[in-house]
Amino acid sequence: MTATATGSAATGRQGLSSTSPVRQLGTGGRGVELRIPRSSGPGLAGADEMSEEDRLWPGRVRRLGREQLRRWRLDSLCEPVELCLSELVTNAMRYGSGPVVDVRLYGTASHLCIEVTDGSPDRPVLGVAGVDDESGRGLALVEAIAESWGVTEDGTCTWCRLSVPEEQS
């Protein structure tokens, strides 16, 4: 279950080696794409259970996102982007049905965009978590932080968009 990571954004400071199971699909001016193999999910470990390996990916993707934002000199967006990445990747790993999760982080002159594709046509639901609930707040956090968020028409990709501060755009 290994693939080769390519390009400078997928090696070095992020701690990904040439045997990392994540595969960088491409980079360009202000964009990076990652493909992450899933080892759990519906039919494998149950919708609410994730394998130990899959549980590690949201943290790894947060670190990759932080490093990319620093390269783009968008440090002020690190915390909100890390949170959005973490929530969207966790949902994809937990509820997605495809064999991989694709993550795309890219920027425009005015926005930073995150897209997470999980292969499942089931649309995520913005839940209302109770005070004692341990989960169910992810999309509410994304909605509170991002300028906008949504799901593609086929339901397989959840995205969000954050404004780039004017002094950094």
Tell me what you see in this structure:
It is a single chain. The protein is an alpha+beta fold. The protein is 27% helix and 23% strand. It has helices spanning 52-71, 78-95, 138-145; strands at residues 23-28, 31-37, 100-107, 111-117, 148-151, 157-163. It has a 6-stranded antiparallel β-sheet with strand order 1-2-3-4-6-5, with helices on one face. Strand 1 and strand 2 form a beta hairpin. The longest helix is centred in the middle third of the chain and has 20 residues, at 52-71. It is globular. The model is unreliable at 1-28 (pLDDT under 50).
Keywords for this entry:
27% helix; 3 helices; 169 residues
- How many whole angstroms does the radius of gyration measure? 15 Å
**Numbering strands along the chain, what is their spatial order in the largest sheet?**
1-2-3-4-6-5
Give the strand content: 15-25%
What is the first-to-last residue Cα distance? 39 Å
Q: What class do helices, strands and sheet pairing give?
A: alpha+beta
Whole-number mean pLDDT: 77
Structure annotation, total helices: 3
Taking pLDDT < 50 over at least 5 consecutive residues as the criterion, the unreliable ranges are 1-28
- Helical fraction: 25-40%
